[in-house]
Each structure stands twice: as C-alpha cells, then as structure tokens.
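Structure ticket #2291
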Amino acid sequence: MDIKCIAFDLDGTLLTSDKTIDERTKDSIQRAMKQGIHIIIASGRDKNGCKFVYEPLSLENGNHFLALVNGQIIYDFKNREYDLDNVLTEEDGLKIQKICKQFDIEGIFQCGYDFYSYVSTYNRMKKRIKSFLFKEPEDYGLKAGMEQRNFINLPYEPIKLTKDINKVIMVHSKSFFEKNLDKLKEALKDYDVLLIGPQWLEIMPKNVNKASAIKKITEKLNLNMDQVMAFGDAQNDIEMLKQVKIGVAMENAMDEVKKVSDLVTKSNDENGIGIVIDALLEGTLSI
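Resolution: structure written out below.
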C-alpha cells in the first residue's frame, strides 16, 4: 500500500488512558518516520497542548505537521509556519451564548490561549462545590502545564468577544447530552457540532475539520488523500477517517466512528496503533 502519511488523533487514540504514549506505539511510529512517512498529529488541542507528544517523537526534526483545534490551524514543522482556516465571529459568539442560556449549559469559548467560561451563577457555584468535593479543576484541565493560558469567568449576560473564537466547548452530564444532543444540533445547525466525549461537545465553523486540514497538508507534500492512513475514536475524527485511504478506529471508539472506518484495531491502552503500523510496514496489512 502506498501510504506516505499517517495522522493520529490524541485523546483516546494515540494517548493511553493515563495520557502517555505506549513505548511500543512510539517505536512503531519512529520506524515509519525512518521509512519516509510523514506524521500528522490531528487534535482538538492547541500547539502547546501537543508539545508533550511531538517532542518525544522528534517531529520538529522532520517534514511533519500538526492539525490543531480540530483542523482549524495547521503547523508545518519543516517551514515553521502556521496556516489558519475559518474562525467563529463575534456574532457567532453571541448566538452561541443565547443557546447556552436556552439549554442552561456551560459554554467555554476558546480564543487562542484564553478560555472564557459562560455559565449561570447557580451552575458556577455547583461546579465549584463539585470541584472541591472531587478534587477536579474548575478549568477542566484546560490550563494544565501552560502558564500563558487563562481561564476567565464571564458575566452571565451577552458578551461580545472581540478576539477570534477558535471553537466553543459545551460541558454537561452524559445523561444531559443523551437527552438533548439532537435538539442542540438543531439549534446549532449553522455550525459543526461534535461529541468528543460523553460530557464534552465542541462547536466548530462549518466544514473546518481534521479532514480539510489533512487535505491541505497532502497538497503541500504533493500527495493525495489515497496516500494517507488515519486513526481516531470520536466524532471529530469521522470526516478524517472517511476521506483518507485507510481509516482506523480504536476498539474504544464510539460506534459511529467504527461504522465509517476501514479497520478497527485494539484499544489505545493495548498498542492498537502500533499493531496496525507494524503490519503496514511489514506488508501484511489487509483490509
């Protein structure tokens, strides 16, 4: 198979449950790199949030890429340059705030390294009590390890954010999303709405996704999508897995992700990625 590029989601895919890379998986990726395969980290995270992954893999030393914020931002390691796709506008921000109020849900507006939390006073108090009781960070770990990141509480009134809004995260309980996801998608029909985890929803500009970023990267490399393999586990990986030559879902992936994939490998805790890469490099991979 003429695979020249491999793309990985991070959380639930390349990263194990304890947010590390299995050493076997790391060895397989580095073997692929030595054979000239380009690596793309395709994540909802920003660049600094991927640093603990790309540094150990030595991606900075080759012709490799990051597809950040679900594909909105591309970083090219070789040329040390960024490419930015569409963002959400001030008007989008106001519209999404209204929907947050309508559904009584917390919305977190990501503007670069700043995160703005929009939630009612009552729910903010509930969150603080829960944080105290269960020793969970009120910022959901979004600031973890990065001093320049800010998590800012907004007043519960219409606020026009003058910075570019990369995406909006909605946080609520699993049962809430099971009951209200279709209604939320209808209310947010002007955007791409992606369930990343049972309690975590992300809102992106239409048609800005990991697949669109990978397509731009392949054009830069004079390749095409038929030369790409990708791994994922959640809704923000679906378009990527559908559009590449070989889409691989993790065993722990959502059912809708498995349905669109060419292969299902073992879980993120069982070297699922390494198993597939080894088979690819050895010429024994079958679909």
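Closing remark: The first strand starts at residue 5 and ends at 8.
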